[in-house]
Design brief:
alpha/beta; globular
């Protein structure tokens, strides 16, 4: 069965997030839950739909950037919608400057996205929220005229209509767009909103979320769920007073994140798991964070994890042969690769990191530009990747990596936090056993042999 090289290259784009309720993307989707410690998305869903459908819930979801969290959250969105919930999903990086995030920014972004998604729902007057937004506009030296706001260099913000919800969504959107690109204006906005975060929470709950849920239930919906993706990508640079930004947002401001009166799911930086304040974080959120580990390619004892390799094979082959069965895909493997062992080598070297696997595969396709893809080219790419990674590894980090390789575990030491964040070390969970291991790209490095 012939496969077009360009078609396969596009299907393996590492930047593409699968939307599982899209029929074409559904063909590419592989359920890794049997080798990732269980059905994490089902647990998140059940917490909302079964255990607390009428009470607000708040969950944290984390894992390495690129391990497939967004795909899983979009699956959660589709399943919740099929179960009768109204779901607001958004990528926070579109609204926030990830190097400088404050709690007011997050709350405004959530308010904007909720109001934007409910444009057809009449919620009545949003006087308190509108007053806060207009106050923010004034702080930014903007001219306010009714629900229309004039901002220097932007012109009119918002639209005049009978539905204040529409006006509010546009107004917040334009203000956050301006402050995202202007550090001085962002500072002014946060200085204004910071002392009023309690009032901001109150008006979002009383004027937006609670009326929205009431209206949605009148329409036969079961409730409102907000999924805030990409919040795990915020930098860990220190705030002006020295507090790391990730700890500030998820530990110090946990109460604000949990007090919105709807169902909430936030992505959280994996590095926080190794923070000194992780114990405090778990006390301030109603549930412990759900972690999406890597797909295991080796077991803790160093033997191959056949179940993980089998699923990773299918993730690749499904993009070439989406309409074939699992066995038929394997039978056609040599249309793409010189042999099955080369595909398995690709899966192993990725460490079970979905985006890294696709990136390596994409680069392999670019190098060869023809099928079948050959093993020597892949091995050369792996060496190049390893050389690039080793340039930034210090002697102290090599020592920590050797310890991980021997112990299959890490502590809450700051050095390990950096190894996790840099994807030099991966976390795995399979058959009730969890462990850490060095990224397989590095395993042949001379520094690990000593």
């Amino acid at each position: 069965m012939k496969v077009e090289l360009q078609t396969f290259f596009k299907a393996t784009n590492p930047s593409r997030t699968l939307v599982v309720d899209n029929p074409e993307d559904q063909k590419f989707y592989i359920d890794f839950s049997p080798v990732r410690g269980g059905k994490i998305i089902e647990e998140l869903k059940d917490n909302i739909t079964f255990f607390s459908p009428d009470e607000p819930t708040c969950a944290l979801f984390t894992g390495h950037i690129g391990c497939g969290k967004s795909t899983e959250l979009l699956r959660l969105k589709a399943e919740l919608e099929a179960d009768g919930f109204h779901v607001v999903y958004f990528e926070s990086s579109e609204d926030l400057e990830m190097a400088d995030v404050d709690i007011g920014d997050v709350l405004l972004a959530i308010a904007r996205r909720i109001s934007q998604s409910l444009q057809t729902v009449q919620l009545g007057k949003l006087a308190g929220l509108q007053t806060l937004v207009q106050g923010a506009a004034r702080v930014l030296n903007a001219e306010v005229q009714g629900v229309r706001i004039k901002v220097p260099n932007l012109g009119d913000v918002g639209v005049v209509s009978q539905n204040d919800t529409v006006s509010l969504a546009f107004g917040i959107g334009e203000i956050t767009a301006k402050t995202k690109s202007d550090a001085t204006m962002r500072q002014r906005l946060n200085q204004y909103l910071g002392p009023q975060k309690t009032q901001l929470l109150q008006v979002i709950n009383q004027e937006l979320i609670e009326p929205a849920i009431a209206k949605l239930k009148q329409q036969g919906k079961k409730g409102l769920v907000v999924i805030v993706d990409n919040l795990d990508r915020i930098d860990n640079s220190p705030k002006p007073w020295g507090r790391p930004q990730q700890d500030y947002l998820f530990v110090d401001q946990a109460e604000c994140l949990t007090k919105l009166h709807c169902h909430l799911v936030y992505t959280m930086p994996l590095a926080l798991k190794f923070s000194d304040d992780y114990g405090v974080l778990t006390q301030r959120f109603p549930e412990r964070p759900k972690i999406l580990p890597m797909v295991p390619v080796q077991l803790k004892d160093g033997s191959d994890c056949q179940a993980g390799i089998r699923l990773l094979r299918q993730m690749v082959l499904a993009r070439a042969f989406p309409d074939l069965t699992e066995q038929e895909r394997l039978e056609n493997c040599t249309e793409i690769f010189d042999n099955l062992e080369s595909l398995d080598y690709l899966c192993y070297r990725s460490g079970g990191h979905v985006r890294d696997l696709l990136k390596l595969l994409n680069d392999w396709i670019k190098k060869e530009r023809t099928f079948p893809l050959s093993r020597p080219t892949l091995e050369k790419l792996v060496r190049q990747y390893r050389n690039e990674m080793t340039l930034r590894i210090s002697d102290n980090q090599w020592e920590l990596l050797r310890q991980v390789q021997q112990r299959k575990w890490v502590s809450d030491d700051q050095g390990y936090e950096l190894l996790i964040r840099s994807r030099l070390v991966f976390e795995y969970y399979y058959q009730d056993e969890s462990w850490f291991d060095v990224n397989p790209i590095l395993v042949d490095a001379q520094e690990l042999q000593g």
